[in-house]
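[scheduler] slot 2 assigned
[scheduler] job type: sequence-to-structure, two independent chains
[scheduler] chain ordering preserved from manifest
[runner] begin chain α
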Amino acid sequence: MYFVNITKQFIFEDDRPFLSCHASTLELLPGGEVIAAWFGGTKEKAGDVAIWISHRRDGVWMPPVKVADQEDVPHWNPVLYRREDGVLFLFYKVGTSIAEWETRVIRSLDNGITWSISVPLVEGDKGGRGPVKNKPIVLHDGGIAAPASLEPDWDCFVDLSVDGGETWRRSETVPLDHISLRGKGIIQPTLWESSPGSVHMYTRSTEGAIYRSDSQDGGKTWCMAYPTELPNNNSGLDLVKMDNGILALVYNPVRTEVGKKKGPRTPLVIRFSVDNGLTWDNELLLDEGEGQYSYPAIIASGNDLFVTYTWRRERIAFYQLTMTY
């Protein structure tokens, strides 16, 4: 396995229309275009933080456009998902505190040029339904599974839809032995399906390691979450299953030290697994150095991988990598 082409870009430079940005997401569009979204404003949790997007056309990123905003209310964690019929969803959180935020959604019928009005994903939601950071996946049976979590509980679950994202049913909470933990728990899962009905998640944790849970009924119920050998710094990660079955995981390979809430958010790497996440190898360094390179998002098309991540809270970085074997 090696890479025949690697392209790295910044979606915008220092002339950005916000001081800080974080939590990017991306999706492929027809004709080879890419769309990315993130939240940006004065700083995370500030009332001027809104959701921004940009399109990559012919290899060039367009100027950022604000697509979701509400005066004096922070916006968080956008997630893009394009349905097979071409409807583009943009999920995001709104709220002054994470414990009380709600998930809202807007839709586009023209690949992100214009958007519908914002509506709650689930009426009465408090705490966040639907995808919390990482993308939904389409299961073998055509259903959609959205990786979700709750804070301050620090528990994970999955929201499932059998009607293309129109309505959602919450899975059971992923079992977790909170009493034995040194920290709060697990959040922000990323999902993949290894065979029909066998769904898996990796999660961010406070325990110094990526945690995993597995489901044998399409994500409705889950086994007890357990630590993997992969380190985690209590920061976001993402994973994608490629068409050839290889898993690509992008994360900070750093442990949280005992007594600390978080570990360094550098370096940022991709690793690969050919055995459903049992072992990982072929590490590729994406970024390192002072500052943070974090909260990655990853998608795939054929032999191409596409990645975005937070670059020092100042920019969103983008990679396109073409693999061969």
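[runner] end chain α
[runner] begin chain β
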Amino acid sequence: MTPELPGYAHEYSGKVRDLYAPLDDAGNLLYDQLLLVASDRLSAYDFVLDTPIPDKGAVLTQMSLWWFDQLADIVPNHVISVDVPAAVAGRAVVVERLDMLPVECVARAYLTGGGLSEYRANGSVSGVALPEGLVDGSRLPEPIFTPSTKAPMGQHDEPIPYEGVVAEIGPALAERVRDLTVEILARGNEIAAERGILLADTKVEFGLRGLELGQDEDVRVAIRERGADCEIVLADEVLTPDSSRFWPADGWEPGRQQPSFDKQFVRDWLTSPASGWDKASGDEPPALPVEVVDATRAKYVEAYERITGQTFA
């Protein structure tokens, strides 16, 4: 259930976030801002699980705010204020409303997950050819941009080659978001390495400032035609355990699945005999047991504390 918040109108709920539009004193919607609320919901294998992870929304919000500061010299972000209703304090921010790019921007420094499956099938990831002999956890020769489609909720994002991004948003804008995505991953790894953590891959969201749509103008057409003239803004979340894979550096061992601080722990339980769930069945996943919930929360908190150097409150 999404909470009712005085002064805000609920606008949309995604897998893990709820969006609200601010209201003015007369009760009219303000169209230049949004209240972005991170819930404790967790998604896995394109399902929103019935079992929430306590404090997850607060961890993701506080971690994103910390990373936005670390990345401020690379790209501006969408945060306006952390002055939010008490009911969602600590897990919500007031942000600028942007025209979001219709592609998922992903960068990889190590090979694992869906990228590994694609590499095993054809020796490349999102059209980027990779050397032979790589295994689960291999460090790539250099970070690569591996975009995907942005599928509606309940459907699966599919990898696309760089040319697919060019077709969607135009060549100049595609080049800029490719370079920014890889630069964010590189900066994240530079900082995480000082904390004994490897950042395997990450997904980031970008929006455009100043697109100024005409009446009834299709936003995708406008982005493709005029997006290169707009300012790119980092949005949503950044470098969190939901959007990235974090591995302890001292446990890194290519050739096997790495221990992690992200929701891979939940994925592993869901596909284990203990869950009794068949991923291919199409059925809803089962509720998570208490020990999995507690362990997942602990991993999120540990990631936050190790990376930021701050105690999670």
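[runner] end chain β
[qc] chain β: The chain has a mean pLDDT of 94.
[scheduler] slot 2 released
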